[in-house]
Write a structure and sequence with these properties.
Elements: E1 8-16, E2 19-20, E3 29-30, E4 33-42, E5 44-52, E6 57-64, E7 71-73, E8 77-84, E9 91-97, E10 102-107, E11 112-115, E12 119-120, E13 130-139, E14 144-152
Parallel strand pairs: 6-7
Antiparallel strand pairs: 1-4, 2-3, 5-14, 6-13, 8-11, 8-14, 9-10, 9-13, 12-13
Amino acid sequence: MATKLTGSALTVTITESLNVANSTAADSLDFAQTTTMSFANIVNVDKRIVKLANTNVTTIANFDTTESAGTYKLGDVKYIRVTNLDSAQNLQVGFEDSGTDAAYTLVAPGCSVVYTTTVVEGTVGGSTFDNVATLKVKAGHNNQNVELFVASE
């Protein structure tokens, strides 16, 4: 008899803690905040570390209407985290669609970027979002490590 997995909720919590001291304790400012998001029905999880051989742009994930080896199914992906495991070099991280749109960001050493959708719009003032085709990274130096975490239904 076949076994069917039952989806569970992925809970992601981000905690920011900052207290700006003042010489008068009563005037100290507390900027602490905790944000929690829950993503229901998660069944598939992929977590891996990728060693980037060089500073070329490297595809670390593909997206399409059907799932296959190395390709995640559009619409099923609910949460993506890319973490720059390097302690000194920045990492460029971005989505590209199958046309000419792309959206990249710079991720500082030891930091992460989180995505909760697989659509992108790469033009200034654009309003037509397209499905992404690839998730790409560009290392700051050879042998830089990146952690990829993808959760989907």
